[in-house]
From TrEMBL:
Origin species: Rhodopseudomonas palustris
Residues covered by the SCP domain: 21-132
Name this protein carries in UniProt: SCP domain-containing protein
CDD domains on file: CAP_bacterial
Taxonomic superkingdom: Bacteria
Coiled-coil ranges from the UniProt annotation: none
């Protein structure tokens, strides 16, 4: 959670992210989320695209719904947080928690899976670009 992603060899721990977000959701009366390999890849692709273009933007490649559809991911619910400039998972989480729209995404009812990524871009203003995708493949109730 406190490992700096602002270096080329850093590896994000998705299980730690799922644990942190699940605890936050639990404290707010919601269910846990688990790491989903397909969402991990989608988050990685988004973070990498932002880092390569030095641009913080949900739509840097395409809107989330289009990216999910193009990958064949059968999401019934999906939300995304992006950010840049945070060097650790703890910082990114705190930034999302303290931002009402990002907080609402982390506390989205019905999501059960997550993908998260941090891409390091040393020659950019922000250095680290983050993507968190929360989704469910279950039919909405």
């Amino acid at each position: 959670m406190y490992l700096s992603m602002a270096n080329g060899g850093a590896k994000l721990d998705p299980a730690a992210a799922a644990s942190m977000i699940s605890l936050y959701r639990h404290n707010n009366g919601l269910g846990a989320v688990t790491v989903d390999p397909a969402l991990m890849q989608l988050a990685e692709d988004q973070s990498t695209a932002m880092a390569k273009r030095n641009k913080l933007d949900h739509d840097v490649k395409a809107p989330l719904a289009k990216r999910l559809n193009a990958s064949g991911y059968p999401a019934s619910i999906a939300v995304e947080n992006v950010s840049a400039g945070y060097h650790t998972l703890a910082e990114a989480f705190s930034g999302w928690r303290d931002s009402p729209p990002h907080r609402a995404n982390m506390l989205k009812s019905g999501v059960t899976k997550l993908g998260i990524a941090a891409s390091y871009a040393p020659g950019t203003k922000y250095k680290v670009f983050w993507t968190l995708i929360l989704a469910s493949t279950e039919a909405p109730r």
